[in-house]
Specification:
Blueprint (H helix, E strand, L loop, with lengths): L2 H4 L3 H12 L6 H6 L7 H13 L3 E6 L2 E6 L3 H17 L3 H11 L4 H21 L1
Antiparallel strand pairs: 1-2
Length: 130
């Protein structure tokens, strides 16, 4: 995991999510349109330039406008965001986070059965590998 993706602000992560939602190729205007309480057009462009400097975005010229795309995959971005979340709220403990999610969620029996089935599937896969 590149250290540059670890230090994105909440707004920068929102920009990355907007970009992925737009098929990983979008103009500054398209990205801005997907943001909650969008900042000014020039602020978005400053943030896009900062993300390029951090190495997580690149752009290509399309006529008079730039089209931006991520240099990291959605799965890497997701994993990085999850790592940050884990660190911030659960001291890095995946077990503590999962326990909190299971105990605080309003889960149906069907949901809980699905989670249990997924846990069983992962256990079975792990046994087959070892």
């Amino acid at each position: 995991m590149s250290h540059t993706t670890e230090h994105l602000t909440r707004r920068e992560r929102e920009i990355m999510n907007a970009l992925f939602a737009l098929g990983n190729k979008a103009s500054a205007e398209d990205i801005r349109a997907r943001l909650t309480h969008p900042p000014t057009d020039s602020s978005v462009r400053v943030m896009l330039a900062r993300l390029e400097k951090k190495g997580v975005l690149r752009h290509q010229q399309d006529g008079l406008r730039y089209l931006y795309s991520a240099t990291i995959s959605p799965s890497v971005a997701k994993r990085t965001a999850l790592q940050q979340y884990l660190q911030t709220f659960f001291g890095g403990s995946l077990t503590r986070m999962m326990t909190a999610l299971v105990s605080e969620g309003s889960w149906s029996d069907e949901d809980l059965d699905g989670l249990k089935a997924e846990i069983d599937r992962v256990r079975k896969e792990r046994k087959q590998k070892s």
